[in-house]
UniProtKB/TrEMBL annotation:
Subcellular location: Membrane
Record's keyword terms, sorted: Membrane, Transmembrane, Transmembrane helix
One Pfam family from the record: TMEM192
Coiled coil: none
Membrane-related topology note: Multi-pass membrane protein
Keyword Translocase: no
Name of protein: Transmembrane protein 192
InterPro entries: TMEM192
Residue numbers spanned by region Disordered: 206-226
Chief localization: membrane
Taxonomic lineage from the root: Eukaryota, Metazoa, Chordata, Craniata, Vertebrata
Gene Ontology CC terms, in alphabetical order: late endosome; lysosomal membrane
Superkingdom, taxonomy of origin: Eukaryota
Membership in a protein family: Belongs to the TMEM192 family.
Gene that produces this protein: TMEM192
Amino acid sequence: MDSKRLSAHASNASTDFTQSVEDDPLIDGPLISQDALQSAIKREFQGLPTNWIAGILTVVHVAYVSVCVVLAVLCWLTDDHSKECKAALNGVDTQTVVLLGKVGMWLLMFMFERCVQHHHSAVRRRGYLQFYRTTRNLKRLPLLIHSAGNAAVLVVIAPSSLLDEKVKNLSVYLLLVIICVELLVTLICLLVYTVHVSRFNAQRPGPDISEEERSHAYSTNASDMHTETGFRDGSCLDEVVEKQADLIEYLKQHNTLLSKRILALTSQQIRD
């Protein structure tokens, strides 16, 4: 009796499954091969061009500081080449040229920060969340350094007459020290940033979620299978929430792209 009930139950379940398959319009459609779907959603790696921009900015910054030192030594601290300096600068004061160049360098740093932010936001949308967080503060440092340098220059230039009365050309020496220190710190930041970006471009990694799944797939020890999106003792809750929000945003964009690709491939196979 029990065997009859089991067989009847199995036949009913098989009938229900068959009906559900027949009623599902997606299953009646043409099947999409896994290779075609993966090739459709696989994105080609896009490197960051900001390392070249940082290199060009470094050269410009070194040239500016070199010009400032030459002008200060030849035209500002001594009067031996005053006529040649006036002819070369078209009568413009040396201090004015140095300060205008300082403002120009700050504008270049501002444009560099905006350009880098644009490219890094695109990298973040493509799923490279760890790289974005690693360089988030580093890319802002050159602009912050030059902003602090501008404030220090104002502090020196404003009481320059009082400083020069105590020590001859003291304001000029302080201005050169500020510019040189600013150059040194900015070069370190730009060099570290260039190394990060060059390494990222050379490795050509996949999105963070893909790299994590790949590492889990090759992991043989269950204890090694972990993720950085969970909360652990000693971790910062704000950072965990930010990571989860970034990951959810990327997965939503990825699912949207995947849905569009599936619909496009399905309609293409129907037409064929």
